[in-house]
Amino acid sequence: MRLTLSPLALALAALMLGACTPASQDAPADAAPTADAAPADAAATATTPEQDEAALRDAQTDPMDAILAGDWRDPANMARDQYRHPRETLAFFGVGPSQTVVEISPGGGWYTEILAPLAQGKGRYIGALNDPAKAGSERATEYYTKSNQGFRDKLAARPDVYANASVVEVDPAAPVFGEAGSADVVLTFRNVHNWVGAGSEAAMFKGFFDVLAPGGVLGVVEHRAAAGKTMEEVKESGYLPEDYVIGLATAAGFVLEEKSEINANPADTKDHPNGVWTLPPSNQHDEADKAKYAAIGESDRMTLRFVKPKVETAAQ
């Protein structure tokens, strides 16, 4: 039976083998052939410069190339790469294939389609979902029950891609995302405004701090309010002041390491009739305004990298 490896498997194998081959397996440059060794057929074993270049290129393949082009990705999600910049965003957060990554509230799995296969090497992906039993209303319980099952079904449908993925359900009021100090990276994409609306933001950031190992990274992407706007002015818009989000993280004990403009959108005027939901992908606007908001694109977003200090300091 012939074994066929997917492009993702080949990329990850090349990445790991290139880094792990021990020097002792290399033949000495001056080793002499044994007396009974058959002479090599030079014509059969010779490679062209083009073949050598291709082999080197394959050995250096970035696994992200295969992941972003993966057939498991929803085409609608792939179309949003231009707005969400997954390659650049994950590189900024320092996400790699050997880490334990916790993604908070992954929703329909946009980033799961990228993060979980990246963890197929030596890493682990954990999707943190709201526990329906801890929801504040019957409607919310029904929503989270259905949403969480849909997420599990997504993982189960492609075990070849999501083998290293798991799920944890948490109480947003007192979240425990895993064993203390067990994660290398915690990521949240466009969720903080929801926690602010629910009043659970402080508890969530404390949970992030607790699950991360000292030196671990918290990566935050969030809709960014216009400079100078107060929380009172924007609280219903879906946008948040950047200094407010930074304050939430530092109050939990994190240190802001760096900001990035990877996900900035200067065309976003942030004064839309239905807040951030006016823009793609929600598109809550009149049909007559479709071209106007499509030209703006998705929201302007802050991209913040925090670190949990290796020597913990008391939260302020």
Q: Nutshell version of this structure?
A:
With about 325 residues, the chain is an alpha/beta fold.
SSE diagram, text form:
Layout: H1 7-20, H2 42-45, H3 49-59, H4 63-68, H5 75-78, H6 81-84, H7 86-93, E1 100-104, H8 112-118, E2 124-130, H9 138-157, H10 159-162, E3 165-170, E4 183-189, H11 192-198, H12 201-211, E5 212-223, H13 231-234, H14 242-251, E6 255-260, H15 290-296, E7 301-307
List its salient traits:
alpha/beta, 316 residues, seven-stranded mixed β-sheet
| Overall radius of gyration | 24 Å
How much helical structure, as a percent, in the residues? Answer: 25-40%
Main beta sheet strand tally, sense and closure: 7 strands, mixed
Give the integer mean of the pLDDT values. 86
How many beta-strand segments? 7
Number of helices: 15
The main sheet orders its strands as 3-2-1-4-5-7-6
Per the principal axes of the C-alpha atoms, what is the gross shape?
globular
Q: What oligomeric state best describes the polypeptide chains here?
A: single chain
The percentage of residues in β strands lies in 15-25%
CATH third-tier fold name of the domain at 63-264 and 300-307 = Rossmann fold
* Low-confidence runs of at least 5 consecutive residues: 1-5, 14-45
Question: What is the CATH superfamily of the domain at 63-264 and 300-307?
Answer: Vaccinia Virus protein VP39
One letter per element, helices H and strands E, the order comes to: HHHHHHHEHEHHEEHHEHHEHE
Based on the coordinates given, report the CATH architecture of the domain at 63-264 and 300-307: 3-Layer(aba) Sandwich
Structural class: alpha/beta
Distance between the termini: 62 Å
CATH C-level name of the domain at 63-264 and 300-307: Alpha Beta
